[in-house]
Write a structure and sequence with these properties.
This protein is α+β, with helices and mostly antiparallel strands. Helices cover 21% and strands 29% of the residues. Helix 1 packs across helix 2, helix 2 crosses helix 3 and helix 2 packs across helix 8.
Length: 372
C-alpha cells in the first residue's frame, strides 16, 4: 500500500530519525549511506521545486525524489515535522518524498498488514477485546482494497485522514491488534457476486444505523437502517449543543428560503423531533438535508432533535459519525458480551459473504475511484 501521510498539513521541513533498524538514503538514484542509531536526515522544499536533503548538518544536494528504505524487514523510523511543528510519528517500512506547490508529499510504502495494524489502533484505540479488533481489521481491509485507487491521481493509494481511514502511526501500544490482523489475514467482505462491500464504519450510531442514501445520495442495498441497542449506553451515545436562534434562523432562511411566514412551518423553525433517523429537517418538501445542518454547525451526527431555550436553539443529539455500517462502540460492547468477530460483522452486514483473498482465485476485482 502507498499511503499519503501528514495530509492534514502543508509540510515544509521534516526529519527522519532512527527508531528501530537502519534505513538506506537515496537522492534520486544516488545512495548516501544509512540512517543509523542516533542519526537523522532532514528534507525540505527548496526554491527550485526540488527536495533539499541534509544528513545531520551536512547538505547532500537537491533531488526530484528522496527514498528512505529499510535495510531489514520490520524496521521502523521516526518522522517529525519541523515546519509546521507536528508531534512526531513512527511508521514501518519505506518512504518516498517529493516536492509540490504546497510543500512536501510524504508517502509510506507499507505492507498491508502493517498498515492495517496502524489503522485499527488509530481508529479503535487501546484496551479493546480481541474480537472487536478482528472485526475492525476485517472492515479496514475490505475498505482499503475496495478503494485502493482513491488517490491515484495524487501518486498514492489512500490518505491517512478519515477521508480514507485514520492512520496516524504504526502499531505502538496494543500488541493484541497484530494478532487480530494476523488471525483475519486476507479475509474480506463481499456480496453474493464476489464484489467487495462498502465496509463503512462510524463511532456510534446513537441506537439506530443510517441509510447510506441519507448521507451520500446513493443507496447501498445491504446496509438498511435498523435499531442497535448495543451502543446506547456508551460514551458517545448522546450529546448536546447550543446555537443562537439568530444564527439558526439566518442559516435556514438564507440558504434554503425557509418559509418563516408560513402559518405551520414558521412556528416550527426552532422545534424538531427525530424519534427515528430522518434525512430532512421538518419535512422533505422543504429540501433541507440534515447532513447540511450537521456540517454547518459541526454537529456530531444528523440524529438530533431541537427546541428553543431562551435565546438559543438547544440541540440534543444521538451518536457520533455518519451512522452507516458498523457502529464501533456497538461492536466493542458486543465483543465484551462474548460475540465473535464473524457474528459482529454479520449483525451489521447481514447479507455479507466472507472470502479469503489469499485462497480465492476468483478475486480479480478492479479497484474503484470514488469522489466525495
Amino acid at each position: 500500500m502507498h499511503i499519503g501521510v501528514f495530509r492534514d498539513y502543508k509540510i515544509q521541513r521534516l526529519t527522519f530519525a532512527y527508531n528501530n533498524g537502519s534505513y538506506s538514503i537515496y537522492g534520486d538514484t544516488i545512495q548516501f549511506g544509512s540512517i543509523l542509531k542516533n542519526e537523522f536526515i532532514e528534507v525540505s522544499k527548496n526554491t527550485n521545486g526540488k527536495v533539499l536533503l541534509k544528513k545531520g548538518a551536512v547538505e547532500l544536494g537537491s533531488f526530484t525524489k528522496i527514498f528512505i528504505t529499510q535495510n531489514y524487514i520490520n524496521t521502523s523510523i521516526t518522522l517529525t515535522s519541523k515546519s509546521p511543528i507536528v508531534k512526531e510519528r513512527k511508521y514501518k517500512d519505506d518512504f518516498e518524498v517529493t516536492a509540490t506547490i504546497d510543500g512536501l508529499d510524504i508517502i509510506n510504502f507499507v505492507d498491508l498488514n502493517n498498515y492495517l495494524a496502524g489503522v485499527v489502533e488509530s481508529e479503535g484505540g487501546p484496551g479493546r477485546e480481541l474480537e472487536y479488533y478482528k472485526v475492525q481489521a476485517l472492515m479496514s481491509r475490505t475498505y482499503a482494497l475496495k478503494y485502493k485507487n482513491r488517490h491515484i491521481k495524487e501518486g498514492f493509494d489512500l490518505c491517512d485522514r478519515v477521508h480514507c481511514q485514520a492512520y496516524h502511526h504504526m502499531l505502538k501500544y496494543t500488541p493484541i491488534i497484530d494478532s487480530a490482523v494476523q488471525q483475519t489475514k486476507g479475509i474480506v467482505m463481499t456480496d453474493k457476486e464476489g464484489e467487495l462491500l462498502e465496509s463503512y464504519f462510524h463511532a456510534n450510531c446513537g441506537g439506530q444505523t443510517s441509510e447510506a442514501e441519507m448521507v451520500w445520495d446513493k443507496a447501498v442495498p445491504y446496509l438498511n437502517s435498523f435499531k442497535d441497542t448495543f451502543c446506547i449506553y456508551t460514551k458517545q451515545a448522546t450529546w448536546e449543543k447550543r446555537i443562537s436562534q439568530y444564527t439558526w434562523q439566518k442559516f435556514l432562511i438564507n440558504k434554503y428560503n425557509y418559509p418563516i411566514t408560513d402559518s405551520l412551518y414558521g412556528a416550527l423553525i426552532f422545534t424538531f423531533n427525530q424519534s427515528q433517523r430522518l434525512a430532512f429537517y421538518q419535512n422533505p418538501i422543504l429540501g433541507i438535508p440534515l447532513r447540511d445542518i450537521r456540517e454547518e454547525f459541526s454537529l456530531k451526527s444528523t440524529y438530533f432533535s431541537c427546541y428553543p431555550d431562551g435565546a438559543d436553539v438547544l440541540i440534543r443529539g444521538k451518536g457520533f459519525g455518519h451512522g452507516v455500517g458498523l457502529c464501533q462502540e456497538g461492536a466493542m460492547k458486543m465483543s465484551k458480551y462474548g460475540y465473535n468477530y464473524l457474528q459482529i460483522a454479520q449483525y451489521y452486514f447481514p447479507n455479507a459473504f466472507l472470502k479469503n483473498i489469499n485462497t480465492e482465485s476468483f478475486f480479480k476485482q478492479k479497484a474503484k475511484e470514488v469522489d466525495y
